[in-house]
């Protein structure tokens, strides 16, 4: 059986394309590109949902708490070799009132629940890679999404990388900062990846996965 990798994230994992308010295709989204780069020994499973948070229930849209869905998600894809989590962008919304440190605590809850889903893991060995998402750029405030995101999102997102690094270390997870390879977001909403960003992220993750989770 192939190694199963579950990519658990929000619109940047789903592949939202701001240019057409649609979705990047199967040759452009980072999970699909990751599978192409890893080769036939890996099965990469897309579990991206626009608006998903680490653990917060959104008062406007239902079903967006990552904590609520992680158990059925993992169990439906068992046996899981690696869970890649890239969440936190939506947690910065003003209506949640959460600092970067509090968002990281939400991530910690999510990781703990994933680890505790013991029956999903191949050989009962959890494998989790935490990705700090690309920072929201300050210019988002002047775009159409600025009014619903609220104030302070860019500043909070800048603090996620260090807070996530500490949580990953505490919880025994692998860690990667998307800001090290994705240099800028699109120039429409300043918070979603470009086609080039998806490619850069997939390339970097392929190297990490091969090193930490070799096929043989």
Automatic annotation (TrEMBL):
Give the GO molecular function terms.
hydrolase activity
List, alphabetically, the Pfam families matched.
Answer: Lipase_GDSL_2
Which SUPFAM superfamilies does the protein's record reference? SGNH hydrolase
Q: Which InterPro entries match?
A: Ester_Hydrolysis_Enzymes (IPR051532), SGNH_hydro (IPR013830), SGNH_hydro_sf (IPR036514)
Q: Where is the SGNH hydrolase-type esterase domain?
A: 7-200
Alphabetical keyword list:
Hydrolase
What's the name of the protein? Answer: SGNH/GDSL hydrolase family protein
Q: Which organism is it from?
A: Hungatella hominis
């Amino acid at each position: 059986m192939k190694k199963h990798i579950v990519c658990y994230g929000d619109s940047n994992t789903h592949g939202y394309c701001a240019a057409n308010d649609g979705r990047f295709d199967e040759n452009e989204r980072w999970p699909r590109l990751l599978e192409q780069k890893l080769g036939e020994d890996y099965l990469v499973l897309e579990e991206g949902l626009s608006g998903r948070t680490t653990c917060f229930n959104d008062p406007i849209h239902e079903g967006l708490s990552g904590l609520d869905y992680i158990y059925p998600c993992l169990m439906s894809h068992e046996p899981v070799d690696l869970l890649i989590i890239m969440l936190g962008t939506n947690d910065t919304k003003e209506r949640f009132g959460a600092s970067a440190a509090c968002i990281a605590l939400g991530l910690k809850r999510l990781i703990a629940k994933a680890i505790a889903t013991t029956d999903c893991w191949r050989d009962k060995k959890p494998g989790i890679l935490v990705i700090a998402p690309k920072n929201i750029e300050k210019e988002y405030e002047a775009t159409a999404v600025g009014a619903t995101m609220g104030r302070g999102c860019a500043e909070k997102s800048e603090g996620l990388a260090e807070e996530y690094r500490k949580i990953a270390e505490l919880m025994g997870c692998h860690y990667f900062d998307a800001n090290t390879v994705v240099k800028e977001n699109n120039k429409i909403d300043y918070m979603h990846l470009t086609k080039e960003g998806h490619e850069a992220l997939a390339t970097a993750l392929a190297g990490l996965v091969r090193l930490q989770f070799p096929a043989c």
